[in-house]
């Protein structure tokens, strides 16, 4: 029988700190069945736009629907890959350039499953989770709605 995992809270307010990432990694040292971790960190770029440079992204979401989509992605990844555990965190609110807005952390007995699952999860998030980003432009207060690529 397939194991169904309890839904986990994904959203955090503001940027995901390096300290949070390092503590997440450290908390897995006692799990000795794990042989590999794959970590994806989505960082905000200072892209050039016609009106200026991107200074950050303001994220919003239809949270209930998004949390459900995240749960479905988690369940599909656990079925598709041999994973020990998985954590996904995504920012809401303003995340300045250079800061982290998406943290995907998968663990597996073997590296191939961790690599493949990480890529699968990120692509599924981009394609299927209703998260919206406004790229903030310079000091002007202008913004451009971000496309998921």
Structure, explained:
By secondary structure, this protein is of the alpha+beta class. It has a single domain, classed as Aldehyde Oxidoreductase, domain 3 (Alpha-Beta Complex). Helix content is 30%, strand content 37%. It contains three helices and eight strands. Strands 1, 2, 3, 4, 5, 6, 7 and 8 form an eight-stranded mixed beta sheet that branches. Helix 2 packs antiparallel against helix 3. The radius of gyration is 16 Å and the shape is elongated.
In short:
The protein has 149 residues and is of the alpha+beta class. The protein is built from three helices and eight strands, in the order βαβββαββαββ.
Properties at a glance:
149 residues; alpha+beta; Aldehyde Oxidoreductase, domain 3; eight-stranded mixed β-sheet; 3 helices; 30% helix
Mean pLDDT over the full residue set = 91
> Rg to the nearest angstrom?
16 Å
Let me know the number of strands.
8
Number of structural units classed as domains? 1
Shape field: elongated
What is the CATH top level name?
Alpha Beta
What is the CATH architecture descriptor?
Alpha-Beta Complex
User: Could you tell me how far the N terminus lies from the C terminus, measured between alpha carbons in angstroms?
Assistant: 36 Å
Low-confidence stretches: none
- Measured as a percent range, the helix fraction is 25-40%
Order of helices and strands: EHEEEHEEHEE
The CATH topology assignment is: Aldehyde Oxidoreductase, domain 3
Please name the fourth-level CATH homologous superfamily: Molybdopterin biosynthesis MoaE subunit
Largest sheet: 8 strands, mixed
Return the structural class.
alpha+beta
Summed up, the helix count is 3
Query: How large is the share of residues in beta strands?
Result: 35-45%
């Amino acid at each position: 029988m397939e194991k169904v995992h309890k839904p986990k809270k994904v959203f955090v307010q503001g940027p995901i700190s390096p300290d949070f990432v390092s503590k997440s990694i450290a908390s897995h040292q006692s799990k000795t069945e794990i042989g590999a971790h794959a970590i994806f960190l989505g960082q905000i770029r200072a892209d050039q736009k016609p009106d200026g440079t991107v200074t950050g992204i303001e994220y919003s979401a239809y949270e209930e629907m998004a949390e459900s989509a995240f749960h479905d992605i988690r369940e599909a990844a656990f079925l598709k890959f041999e994973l020990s555990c998985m954590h996904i965190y995504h920012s809401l609110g303003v995340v300045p350039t250079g800061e982290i807005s998406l943290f995907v952390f998968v663990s597996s007995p073997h590296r191939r499953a961790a690599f493949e699952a990480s890529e699968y999860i990120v692509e599924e998030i981009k394609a299927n989770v209703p998260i919206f980003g406004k790229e903030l432009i310079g000091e002007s207060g202008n913004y451009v709605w971000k496309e998921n690529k």
